[in-house]
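In response to reviewer comment 3 from the previous cycle, which asked for concrete evidence that the modeling workflow produces usable outputs, we include below a single protein chain processed end to end. The sequence was submitted unchanged, and the resulting structure tokens are shown without manual editing.
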Amino acid sequence: MKELWDAYDVGLNKLNGVTLVRGELIPQGVFHLVCEIAVKHVDGQYLIMQRDLSKHRGGMWELTAGGSALQGETPVECAVRELKEETGIICNELLEIGRVIHMGQRTYYIDYLCTTNCDKNTVKLQYGETIAYKWVDKSELKNNDNLVTKRAQLFIKELR
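The workflow returned the following structure tokens.
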């Protein structure tokens, strides 16, 4: 089954009547939406996950769960779904922490922070996405140059 996405303009306005298909070329001036979620435990530690070895940048660690919004999903609905799929964590109280447009990938990223009091030993990894996880302190995050995305590294620099 094909994965269908809504199409957006540079202002994150949905383009009615335009459907994007994963794997197909996205037209110039059109963007698809990706939501990423950083998870912070109430004790101050952050969840990082190791990417599946078969994925692009496999074996690297990432600060966020996330993925593409499916057709008809709002950004928050996408973030809640992706977080649950990739970690098993259910969080409906998300704080938006940033937006980034990647012109080359024609992707509009919305980043969220989930603060949770979940049992830290019950994170459920999604097969094919991640192979390991760990909870780390802010200081370990700040000294880690091996995280996948520059957006995550910018977020980490802003941590107080």
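The radius of gyration is 16 Å. We consider this sufficient to address the reviewer's concern, and the full set will be provided in the supplementary archive.
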